[in-house]
Amino acid sequence: xxxxxxxxxxxxxxxxxxxxxxxxxxxxxxxxxxxxxxxxxxxxxxxxxxxxxxxxxxxxxxxxxxxxxxxxxxxxxxxxxxxxxxxxxxxxxxxxxxxxxxxxxxxxxxxxxxxxxxxxxxxxxxxxxxxxxxxxxxxxxxxxxxxxxxxxxxxxxxxxxxxxxxxxxxx
Length: 171
Known about the structure:
Hypothetical Protein Ychn, Chain: A; 2 domains; five-stranded parallel β-sheet
């Protein structure tokens, strides 16, 4: 077939387009945007959360969600693994009890509850420290059902680290 023949040109163009599409989807995470991702297969992170401000939690958890939804971390050969351990004042953020919160806080708490529910659907491991619940007088039965109970959040964080999770502290 002649290279100037329309059929040849069409087939060749289709082949080049297909080859470029394959190469672009197989590209590793951008080392230009995140040099720290170069040469790694995946990320595992545990977020140790003691932050008690609902408004700040909404801002910070937008970034937490970005860790496992970012195109660069999703392009790694292993999917991102993320865990969140709520302890200290943060345990109040995942209870429907609104005692001690302002009206503005209540709106932020509603938005935060939506974020927590979505994170659970996304496969994020969510845990609450029962020791913190006891110390702060929060009813363990009032915690959102999406969040699993652990006796001591510190032990859980240590366990995740022993499994190779990187620690990120949010306070």
